[in-house]
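(Fold this chain)
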Amino acid sequence: MEVIRCYLLLLLSSLIAVGDGIACYRCSNSMDSYLPYDETCAYYDYKGNQVAFTDWETCWTSVNANGVVSRSASVHGSDGECSYDMYVTTCYCTGDLCNDQHCEHCQGKNI
């Protein structure tokens, strides 16, 4: 009986750990964005609007050459990954509230 109880506790703890999610900053300094507007979203070391995403595991920051900065969460992207699309650099990270910077580690594009 004790073995069964230990097994059930182990099984329960593994189920709880699955899908923990991530906390990310979520904003844009553009009023035209679908994201919540925050004029301070473009600040380096941003510490504003925080959202817990239970089913997502990655935060991101997008920096546009025109000065628009957006931050939120995603289901894809790996820690330290960078993507480039015309005038936008997007970087991904996997720690809670890790998307407070401007993708400085991304190489190959001016941001």
User: Anything to note?
Assistant: DSSP finds one helix and seven strands in the chain. The domain at 20-111 is CATH 2.10.60.10 (CD59).
